[in-house]
Amino acid sequence: MRGEGDISxxxxxxxxxxxxxxxxxxxxxxxxxxxxxxxxxPARALLLVGQAGGTxxxxxxxxxxxxxxxxxxxxDTWSREVIGAVAEKFGARAASPSDRPFLPFxxxxxxxxxxxxxxxxxxxxxxxxxWHAYRGALLFDSELVFQHAAAPIHLCDSCLEKPCxxxxxxxxxxSDGFAYAECLAHVRGPAGSACRDDGCLARNACPYGTAYRYxxxxxxxxxxxFIR
Length: 228
Ligand code: B12
Ligand code: SF4
Ligand code: SF4
Hints:
alpha+beta, 2 domains, 9 helices
């Protein structure tokens, strides 16, 4: 059994070179359905890789400047390249949130860090608010040692005003889920310039984690990818 303390510190150091961080992890239960590990058998442990705030953005932009101008899905490609190299170095297999069929990254994140969804679907983090994401997972063929951490406070529970739900021009969030088509039509349309240029108004309305808010260029990049 690998010592998680030791390996996760070394993995963290390797990821930090690209502005990425470890987002916790867990061991799969025996007989639990798990994605393949590095040798094709079901993985025994998982570490999530992600970002908090815009720290990977300058690394990604520097990489992008050296790519052909018509490169498809650049952020996925960069993430796969960087996280794939870290996986290889540490005997893991890298998985991406964009791999098909989609892997349950948000369920994994809830299990790894005890996070819960905000009313806008994005998981709420006690420190980063809505300004964090997952860029990959490292899958191992043997168990790791994890420290047990207390479940974090879910900030949405005490947020009575819920400005995130009052800001969207097309009220895209409801108990039925995210009205993807309505959001898309608005963001693509003539009245959608605020969402297009400055990012999702609902996400930006949340008062938490504002120090981690993505740079405007990154928000515009995500919106462009979303409406493509
Ligand atoms: C398909 C997808 C979408 C689709 C449809 C979402 C849906 N209704 O299912 C669309 C295109 C609408 C979408 C949009 C966005 N998404 Co999205 N999306 C995904 C993706 C690739 C697959 C989701 C899935 O089916 N998973 C498979 C099931 C089995 O896994 P799961 O963990 O059980 O899935 C959970 C999510 O689907 C979630 N969910 C359901 N409805 C919605 C709606 C929204 C807006 C979100 C964020 C989550 C969400 O609930 C499920 C149960 O826990 C995931 C990555 C992944 N692999 O999970 C990202 C992911 C959920 N998206 C994410 C984000 C941030 C967004 C955006 C907010 C920003 C963006 N990337 O542009 C936008 C929202 C639009 C906006 N107005 O800004 C993040 C969430 C991170 C977090 N902090 O929680 C993820 C995890 C990607 C990542 N790299 O981190 N997304
Ligand atoms: S505005 Fe309030 S309810 Fe909405 S995501 Fe932020 S903390 Fe949660
Ligand atoms: S991008 Fe704009 S239209 Fe879409 S959910 Fe956010 S605020 Fe609403």
